[in-house]
Amino acid sequence: MHLHTCSINTATLGHRRPIEAVIEAVARHGFGGIAPWRRDLEGRSPKMVARRILDAGLGVSSFCRSTYLPAESATAFERNVEDNRRAIEAAADLGAMSFVMVVGGLPGSSKDLAGARQQVEEGCAALLEHARSLGVALALEPLHPMCAADRSCLSTLEQALDLCARLEPDGAAAAPAAGVIVDVYHCWWDPKVLEQIARAGRARRIVGFHVSDWLVPTRDLLMDRGMMGDGVIDLPLLRGAVERANYNGLVEIEIFSAGNWWTRPEDEVLATCAARMQSCC
Amino acid sequence: MHLHTCSINTATLGHRRPIEAVIEAVARHGFGGIAPWRRDLEGRSPKMVARRILDAGLGVSSFCRSTYLPAESATAFERNVEDNRRAIEAAADLGAMSFVMVVGGLPGSSKDLAGARQQVEEGCAALLEHARSLGVALALEPLHPMCAADRSCLSTLEQALDLCARLEPDGAAAAPAAGVIVDVYHCWWDPKVLEQIARAGRARRIVGFHVSDWLVPTRDLLMDRGMMGDGVIDLPLLRGAVERANYNGLVEIEIFSAGNWWTRPEDEVLATCAARMQSCC
After folding, report:
1. Phi and psi dihedrals of B273, rounded to 5?
2. Please, are residues B231 and B213 in contact by the beta-carbon 8 Å criterion?
3. In angstroms, what CA-CA distances link B238 with A242, B77, B249?
4. CA of A168 to nearest chain B CA: how many angstroms apart?
5. Do residue B232 and residue A111 have CB atoms under 8 angstroms apart?
6. pLDDT tens across B19-52, in order?
7. DSSP character for B165?
8. What is the ipTM of this complex?
9. Which of A113, A193, A238 to mutate to test the interface with B (most CBs of B within 10 A)?
10. How far is B212 from chain A (nearest CA, A)?
């Protein structure tokens, strides 16, 4: 796998240095793209950061990520939608082709999962036209079911693709504005993963492909992702599936690892990512 | 909810005391059943334990649990199947109507999830007739996807019901020998949970209903289940669904909680279970 087809999600480096330094390091290690977070842009103009990224010869695989949509009050829900509208504008200014929708879980003390999912659908519907008009795809990212309560009530590719089809009928647009991110960490376990990747391909919905690995044991529900090759995910299987589904965008490396990789020097992390993309993916 | 319709899985008490003492305590607190583990029977005759349980006025909601099926060699796989055959005989001697199949995950250093699932299917097929002849149901328990690597490559009710239908066609028997356990902890997040519970009911496949709760945050993938009411699961919703699906067996309380409930006095845990079954379920 050529490194110029790979992108580094800035979370992989633990957000320890300013985005300018991270852009330089990612380019120096030979990667072809970067995926910044909103926090990376604080106090900066997205257009200036876009310039830096372009000058470094990098693409932007995605812009992370949405404010959670479900809320306990209509006012708070509207605020969340509005916040995401601004973030989609920043994504456009940044030159990102997609805005990552981590949709949120149960708001406050709610146990109403169906209600949260309904809010997600309404929020996405309210954002879709704005995203389309700016040329940014809403990249719905189903998260692992262990994140259903507090991060994402969107848990499977099937569910995300059903939602996409309700928001924007399959085949209605040559380049759909509602898409999905296939993140191996979140969907490797799913008995329907290959079938749903193929379905996503037919509907041209795959707007991102994220890699990392599932460690055994996993010691933390959020912060213990593994480096490619250190876990049990059959990465070539899933990569082959997204390729057969005609995804030809950047392969994004996103590793949350507070106890391990985030404690190591940035150059070591990037060099390891580069080596593993060639040996394990 | 009447306590005589509720059962205590002995894991809820942390396996701290001999089964004879646990039977006495569960009965004294007014529960209607118990679900012992194989470890509870070590050095004892299952028939003697069955007698104790009967004398205490309790039913046996299930017998826990299978040896993991997938293995790295054919010899080891056969040994796992044989081990489960013996355990099914113990389940029959114990008077359990079902034997809980926690099927296992990836064997050894394998990344072949499809292969593990194939082994599970072959193993269950090899066990089914034996179980049927002894009047014990094979109770396939899909575990939460976070357990897919190391405990259960059976992750959803849909997947488990598809497997049941391949093992034994829907409608082929008045009392199917292949069934499923609906455990709220494992399936509450699933967008298809209500649809699949209804499907399981139509095929008369529900052989167990387990309750506990999903805590936010969850600090451990295995040992941090919550007491009913302390988490985010809509227990009345799921209980209503299994009742509408004509499940009228015992409701089993199964809480793995190394850091909390297992450190508390047994009587406090049982009294709390009893109270919560009436206030939260």
Report:
1. -55, -45
2. yes
3. 35, 35, 15
4. 20
5. yes
6. 999 999 999 999 999 999 999 999 999 999 999 9
7. H
8. 0.97
9. A113
10. 14
